Amino acid sequence: MFDNMHTELPVSSAAAIAAGVCKSAKLQAGENQLRTARSDRDDIQKQIREYIQHQRAIGHSTGVADRQLTALEQRRLATEATIRRLHGEVRAMRAERADLVVEALTPMRTAAAKEAVEALVKYKAAVGSLLEIADQVLRAGGEQAPFFLRDLVDGETEARLRRWAGLR
C-alpha cells in the first residue's frame, strides 16, 4: 500500500540552494566590521585587565582614576556602542537575505509539503482502517488498538503543511 509513496528529495539540495543565495557585499562588509569591532572590544578588555593587574602588582590602588584606564574604558564603551549599531544593521541585512532564501526554497518546500500532505492523507486512511479493525477485534474480546495508531499529526501541523503546499 505504501510502496513508492514519495519521491526522494536530494538531502543537500536545500542547502545548496540556500548557499547559492549570495550575501550582499554590504552584508559581508557589515559582518566583517562587526567581527572586527568584537575583536577590538576583546583586546580593550584584555588591556584593561592587564593594566589593573599591573597597577595592583606595583601597589597602586585600582580605584584611582587614572587617565590611561579612563581612556581604555572610553574606548571600550565606544566600541560597545559600535557593536550594538552594527549588530542591528547586520541583523536587518540577514533578514533581507533570509527572505531571499525563503523565496529560492519555496518551490522545493511546496513540492515537499504536497508530498507530506499526500502521505498524511494515506496515513490517516490506513490508520482509520486499522482502528476500525481494532474496534472489531476489541468487540470480539481481543486487545485494544496500540497507542501509535492515534492521530500523530495535530491540526496545526497539518494546516501548516497544507499552506506550504498551496492547498490552504
What features would you highlight for this structure?
mainly alpha, elongated
Describe this protein's structure:
The protein has 168 residues and is mostly helical. The protein has one domain (23-164). The chain contains 4 helices and no strands. The chain has helices at 13-20, 25-57, 67-139, 155-164. Helix 2 crosses helix 3. It is elongated, with a radius of gyration of 30 Å.
Quick structural overview:
The chain is mainly α. The protein has helices spanning 13-20, 25-57, 67-139, 155-164.
**Number of DSSP E strands:** 0
Radius of gyration computed on alpha carbons:
30 Å
Query: What number of structural domains do the residues give?
Result: 1
**What is the helix/strand order?**
HHHH
* Shape call: elongated
Q: Which range best describes the helical content: under 10%, 10-25%, 25-40%, 40-55%, 55-70% or over 70%? A: over 70%
Sheet-strand content, in percent, reads under 5%
Low-pLDDT parts are 1-6
Major sheet: none
Mean pLDDT: 84
